[in-house]
Amino acid sequence: MAEQDWKTNKRTFAAVSIPTLFWVIVFFLVPMAMVWLYSFGENRGLTEIAISGTLENYKRATEWLYLTIFGKSFAVAALVTLICLIVGFPVAMAITFASEKWRPWLLLGIMLPFWTNLLIRTYALMMLLGTQGYANKSLGALWEGASWLKTLVGLQPLPTWEPVQLLFNNFAVVFGLVYVHLPFMVLPLYAALDRLDRSLIEASLDLGAGHFRTIMRIVVPLAAPGIIAGVMITLIPALGAYLTPDLMGGTDSQMIANVIERQFKKANDWPFGAALSFLLIYAMFILIALQSMRRKVPEIH
Amino acid sequence: MPYTWLTLGIGYRKSKVKAKPDSWKVLFDSPEYAGRISWLSEAGDMFRLYGKYLGKSVNALTPADIATIEAMMIKQKPNVKNFHVDDGQDLLLKGDVDLVLEYNGDIAQIMAEDDDIDFIVPKEGSQLNSDNLCIPKGAPHPKNAHAFINYILDGEVDKKITETILYPTPNAAAKALMPDSYKNNPVIFPPADVLAKCEYAKFNPELQPLFEEAFTRVRAA
Amino acid sequence: MALFARTPVAPLEYSRTLWMRLWVGAVMIFLYAPLIVLMIFSFNDSKRNVVWRGFTTKYYEKALGNDELIEALLNSLTIAGLATIVSLALGSVAAVMLWRFRFPLKGAIDGTISLPIIVPEICLGVAFLMFFSMVSWPTDLVWPFNLAAITIAHITFCFPFVTMVVRSRLATFNREQEEAAKDLGASEWQVFRDVLIPHIKPALVAGALLSFTLSLDDFVITYFTSGPDTITFPVKVYSMVRFSVTPEVNAASTLLIILTVALTFVALKAQGVKAIAETH
Predict the structure, then answer these.
(1) Please, which residues bridge with residue C24 across strands?
(2) Residue B148, in any domain of the structure
């Protein structure tokens, strides 16, 4: 049955549209419009800001310095998304082809950490990765073991174990972002794989293609909408990540969200922060436009 | 009204340094402790302290000074492990770093737990700050605000605050109630000759965005 | 589930092959090990988080005796509860609007509703910071009205998720049921209440769970909108860390994790594992 024209049932339409539109306009579009206006303003004194229509903030925001930070944020987000895809795809496959009894529990297992507070998960990870943390201790134990094995076969033991730097560098930021964003990737992948026609895979296998070839040639193209949805849903929050680089990053790990936050909380330069925010939002728009140009936006759920 | 004041200095692990780090040089201009240093992530404080290291007043930095300092920071950056968000005392305590730029009270707190840790105000001097209680113009309940400030400034109340935060209190009545171990602690109350070299930092709305931008460049470099 | 299959593995039983199991197992360890270590260390009898010095529950006593922390937790739960209720109502209404009607500018409105999902948290936080300071939102209201600003911000980013989930559920609705109800004399409202609502109930449960956890989870947006009286749990934890991460933080976090798990199981009881998994 087709959709109803709003004119045929105005009362019901009003009942459902007025609250929605009111909320979206007052509590979303108006605040966003304020940021947009501020981005054309300048500081006049400590607390006064004049909307003067200046483009100075955008000029500053598109300087080489800030462009490189945007570029770096994008590179980090893309790397995180790629790792999530590589790690998450087999997991989504496993869930899809798991038995009826196990599937819901596997899904729940993936979702549960996602329901735990982001800040708490980040601290948990930091505890594990510190110089004296358990990740380093386990690696140290493995090293000792390898060294002992070497002496066993009569070779020189390995040099003594030096704790590796797992925290406060770009590796830590990527690791932390993968940790918090993995569920975002697995769920849409699973949704797409679940809809797949299994007879196609069986046919491919029957006709002699190997598992790997079947996956690359049959499963991946068929699940492409889900893969794209997963990529977008991981890439976008990763691009705007703030807490992870702030807490786990090293001296050169700042991402664009950190720069934006500092304009508001430290530098007291709201117009410039607003301009940076809008550049980030425009970047999101471009990503989404690119995606819908490739194909019609797939439903995430 | 100030209810506590503070100074910045170097918190360090005694067993891991060769000599007392009595100069900002070890933190700002030397590869001696590469990878074991943590800076504070406050752009303004960092630039002002660098200024102090160069023998300038913390409140008289010029854009040219900022450029010089920026270049020095970029040169030193590979030796620095991270910019901490005022949790440097934890990094020091956990052994993630051995030298950290921190506020005296934070280090005093962990010195009570680990006697391998010490704090020093470098010989070039440092900056002083105070945490203040203020009533903004046009505040809706100035009377309540005054009542609250009076409460905080009460000797017994401030004593309890001070016992927890271990920062120097400007409140003589509260200080009198504290044990000698607090009153005579050179970390909390640096000696007069050290304080003489420190300066009180002012917020400068002109320079603050410059500090931030320069620091952003340092981080991006 | 034995690691080695007793019956021969069929071609499509990917989840029964050894390397697949190892991979999933490794991912689960990756996801859960940090949380488990965090929970174990909440019982550690040392202020330093790295070395095990013996079992104690004193940090739980400390956390539970910390009035500000409890207040922050109550604030968080209140905000999450209110935000969930409003998001459910608003989200379903919006879903019905988009599902049922054809109207001018539909594409634009549809896009705008899902925009809060796309806009980075930091930008949304900044927008609310400006908005509430520009309209001089009153800050001296009594509890729980002082939480309104944060709640509003949370509703804005929660309700699009509800709309999304409810809409996909509505897509499977057979409109003939609605027609039949109307033919039998049901009013518009009765149809909504007795036919539509029961049909979308699993989506509502999933949406509620999603909103509640999103709200409870949010740090960035709240960090920009909270005031001195309206500290939420994540913001409080963030500020506690500035004074040192003691096992008290671990204890408080463990309590929150347990709360989340308990909530999930309540929802599962209400709806069954499968329904939740299906709507994710």
Answers:
(1) none
(2) no
Domain ranges of chain A: 75-124+168-254, 131-165
A5: part of which helix (H) or strand (E)? strand A4-5
- Under 8 Å between Cβ of B126 and B52: yes
Q: Which chains touch B (3 or more CB pairs under 8 A)?
A: A, C
User: Is C244 in contact with A145 (CB distance < 8 Å)?
Assistant: no
**Cβ(C242)–Cβ(B87) below 8 Å:** yes
Res. C276: pLDDT tops 60: no
Q: Mutate which of B48, B91, B216 to disrupt the A interface (most A C-beta within 10 Å)?
A: B216
Q: Please state, as a whole number, how many other Cβ atoms lie within 10 Å of the Cβ of residue C106.
A: 14
| B190 contacts B105 by C-beta, under 8 angstroms | no
Among A284, A280, A290, A269, residue whose Cα is nearest residue A69:
A280
Helix/strand/coil for A201: helix
Tell me the C-alpha to C-alpha distance, in Å, between residue B179 and each of B113, B166, B182: 18, 12, 6
Q: Is C170 in the A-facing interface, judged by CB distances under 8 Å?
A: no
How many structural domains are present in chain B?
1
What does the pLDDT look like over A110-152, one tens digit per residue?
888 877 778 888 888 888 887 777 777 778 788 888 888 888 7
Confidence bin at A178 (pLDDT 50/70/90): very high
Contact in structure between B162 and B176 (CB atoms under 8 Å): no
Task: Judge residue C276's burial from the number of C-beta atoms within 10 Å of its C-beta, 0-12 exposed, 13-18 middle, 19 or more buried.
Answer: buried
Q: How confident is the model at residue C206 (pLDDT cuts 50, 70, 90)?
A: confident
CATH 1.10.300.10 is right for the domain spanning A75-124+168-254: no
DSSP C50: S
Q: Do B140 and C48 touch (CB under 8 A)?
A: no
Domain of B113, CATH number, reads: 3.40.190.10
pLDDT digits (tens, 9 = 90+) for C61-117: 888 888 888 888 889 889 999 999 999 999 999 998 988 888 888 888 888 888 888
Asked whether residue B67 is assigned to any structural domain, the reply reads yes
* Residue of chain B with shortest Cα separation from A258: B216
CA distances to A236, B213, B215 from A259, in Å:
17, 9, 10
Task: Report if residue B150 sits inside a domain.
Answer: no
Give me the helices (H) in chain A, please: 10-24, 30-38, 56-61, 64-96, 103-114, 118-129, 134-152, 170-194, 198-206, 211-214, 220-222, 224-239, 243-248, 256-265, 270-294
**Domain residue limits at B186:** 2-131+182-220
Whether residue B138 lies inside any domain: the answer is no
Tokens 């045929």 correspond to A8
